[in-house]
Specification:
Layout: H1 5-13, H2 18-37, E1 61-62, H3 75-102, H4 110-136, E2 146-147, H5 152-156, H6 161-189, H7 193-223, H8 228-239, H9 250-255, H10 260-263
Parallel strand pairs: 1-2
Helix pairs in contact: 1-2, 1-3, 2-4, 3-4, 3-6, 4-7, 6-7, 6-8
This protein binds fe (ii) ion (2 copies).
One fe (ii) ion is lined by residues 92, 119, 123, 173, 206, 209.
Length: 270
C-alpha cells in the first residue's frame, strides 16, 4: 500500500537528524509530485503528528536572550548568522510538513498540498545549502547554540489552521523577506560567494512560501464568507507575541500578496 501524504509528513517530523530529515523530505516530495504527474494522486489520509518534531541532540536550544551575540561583521559573526539561518530552515521543513499533517481533516483542494509539499522541499534544499556553507567554513549545524521557541507558533496554532497560515507564512516567513537582503549584503562585503548564492536562492523561493500563505488564508476566509483583513489582524494579535518590526520589504510582500494594510496596523508604529 502506498503511504498517505500525512503519513509521509509524520515520518519527516519524527526524523531527528537534519540531513536525514531533509533527505526524507525531498524523497517524499518527489514521490508526491511523481504521483501527481501520473494523474494518480496519493491519498491525504489522517495521521497524528507529534506535538513537537524530533530534533538532534545538537544544537543546544537556548532562550533567545541567552544565545551569545556576535558581531555580524566578523568571521565568527557570519558563521553564527549562517547557523541561525540553518536552524530557521530546519524548523521551516517541519512547519510545512506539520501544516500538511496537522490539518489533514480540513478539506482542501489538491493545490494546497502541492504548494506546501513544494515549500517543504525547498526548505530542505535551503537547510542543505546553508549547512554546506557552514561546513565549507569548518563548522556545521549543531556546532553553536540555537534559539529555543521556534516551534512556539506551531504549538500556539495547533487547533487553528487560519491562525497557522496567518502567523507562520504571512508573519514569520514574510519577516524573512524583510531581513534577507541585509544578510546578503553582509556576505557580499565579505566576498563569500557561496553564502551569497545560498541566500539568494532562499530569498527568491521564500516569496513563494509567503504567497502560498496568503493564497490559502484568503481561500479559507472566502470559503467561510469572512473579511480577510480584520480576521488576519485578530489572529496575529492572538497568536503572535509582540509587534511587527519595520522596515518592511513592501515590494516583495506585495509580490507575495500581502498588502501594506495587513501589516502596518500591527507594527510598532502602526
Ligand atoms: Fe527557507
Ligand atoms: Fe519558507
Amino acid at each position: 500500500m502506498e503511504k498517505t501524504l500525512t503519513e509521509m509528513a509524520v515520518e519527516v517530523l519524527e526524523t531527528a537528524n537534519g540531513r536525514a530529515k531533509t533527505a526524507l523530505s525531498r524523497e517524499h516530495a518527489a514521490r508526491w509530485f511523481a504521483h501527481r504527474d501520473a494523474g494518480n494522486m496519493l491519498t491525504i489520509g489522517k495521521a497524528s503528528p507529534p506535538l513537537r518534531p524530533a530534533r538532534p541532540d545538537r544544537p543546544e536550544l537556548l532562550d533567545p536572550r541567552d544565545v551569545p551575540k556576535r558581531k555580524p561583521g566578523s568571521p565568527e559573526g557570519r558563521i553564527a548568522l549562517l547557523h541561525a539561518v540553518a536552524h530557521i530552515e530546519l524548523n521551516a521543513v517541519d512547519l510545512h510538513w506539520d501544516l500538511i499533517a496537522r490539518f489533514g481533516d480540513v478539506e482542501m483542494p489538491p493545490g494546497f498540498y502541492d504548494d506546501w509539499v513544494k515549500a517543504a522541499d525547498e526548505e530542505s534544499k535551503h537547510f542543505n545549502l546553508v549547512s554546506d556553507c557552514l561546513e565549507a567554513h569548518g563548522s556545521h549545524y549543531g556546532a553553536l547554540p540555537a534559539h529555543a521557541g521556534m516551534w512556539r507558533a506551531a504549538e500556539d496554532t495547533v487547533n487553528d489552521p487560519m491562525g497557522r497560515l496567518a502567523v507562520v507564512p504571512m508573519v514569520l516567513e514574510a519577516r524573512g523577506l524583510d531581513v534577507t537582503p541585509g544578510m546578503i549584503e553582509i556576505f557580499r562585503k565579505a566576498k563569500d560567494d557561496g553564502a551569497v548564492a545560498a541566500l539568494e536562492t532562499i530569498y527568491s523561493e521564500e516569496v513563494g512560501h509567503v504567497a502560498y500563505g496568503s493564497k490559502w488564508f484568503h481561500f479559507l476566509c472566502g470559503r467561510d464568507g469572512l473579511d480577510p483583513k480584520p480576521v488576519f489582524h485578530d489572529l496575529v494579535r492572538r497568536y503572535f507575541h509582540g509587534a511587527l518590526k519595520p522596515p518592511f520589504n513592501d515590494e516583495k510582500r506585495a509580490e507575495a500578496g500581502i498588502p501594506p494594510d495587513f501589516y502596518w496596523p500591527l507594527s510598532e508604529t502602526g
